[in-house]
Amino acid sequence: MQAKTVGFKWEWKSVISIDALMEYAIAYKAPEERKERKLIFAEIFEDYWAGLFVSVRDQSKVAELQNANSMEKVGIIVRSFDDDVKPIEFNFFAINRTTKMGVYLHYHRSASLSQFSRYFLSIFHKYADEMIKEKLEEMVSNSIGTIAKRKQKALAKNIKGRFDFSQIIMPGELDAVLQEFSEIGEFSFNYSELVLSERVFLPFKDTFNTIYHKVSFSKKSPIADKIKAILESAKGLQGFRIVGKNEKGQKLSVVSRNYGLKAPRNFGEYDLNEIINSNNFEVSMIASTPIAKALISKCKDFPDLFER
Questions:
Q1: Among residues 11, 108, 215, 274, which one has the fewest Cβ atoms lying within 10 Å of its Cβ?
Q2: Are residues 18 and 51 in the same domain?
Q3: Domain assignment of residue 150, yes or no
Q4: Over the stretch 37-65, which tens digit does the pLDDT of each residue have?
Q5: What is the domain range of residue 192?
Q6: Do 31 and 128 share a structural domain?
């Protein structure tokens, strides 16, 4: 089975740093009674967080196909897990600590990039709510009387902010990604153009302008083909962003930038069996695994995208 590397970008305006958020996510443990629990294991490696997103299944038995290579005596057997054994799915990721941009390793039936990002969105809100509560209690203890509502709102806005996430796509992935949109709410793109100027002795920085266009839609709009046509015809295209929803009503957001002639179709693919065989490791040493190093190396291959 192939595992595909997907690029992503997180954005938020808040006093919460990515280091603090990641440390909170590592320490957070969901209630045991949940059917499926999520866990984060991660550590810092240079300018990146290298991590593992684990989905723990509430499953005590598994069905297996016996004698699959024989057409005569094929059977199905049910095997029980030991009480202290839980089946899991896991996804590696790497994210730059400054730009909040990184890559996520996804394979069939594992947690999608959207599920991964939505989990961190929930963690972000939990952490922000705890910070707000703590700060309000501190403000109350240091003041006489109640705290004005406007001060409470200002505090909440400064801490909670807004958490957005987008998938970073390569030019070759546009067709497949557009098919995931059932509704498009916003489409924006920017490109550069040459501007003729009589001030020829001035620095070249005045020679180029970046033109930015944004189109928003208030209703469902089937314009995927038109978007593709615009992007293919725009000369000097530097990047674009599409925001909308999928068939389940979940938010989708994709961004892309000009990667030049060396751009591959995606950020890399790996054989899942090789990853499993080569990664028997302690979760406290994730950054030292071959796949974590490979993901960070992939980010470093595109410094203009992931590191600036």
A1: 108
A2: yes
A3: yes
A4: 888 999 999 999 999 999 887 666 656 65
A5: 171-255
A6: yes
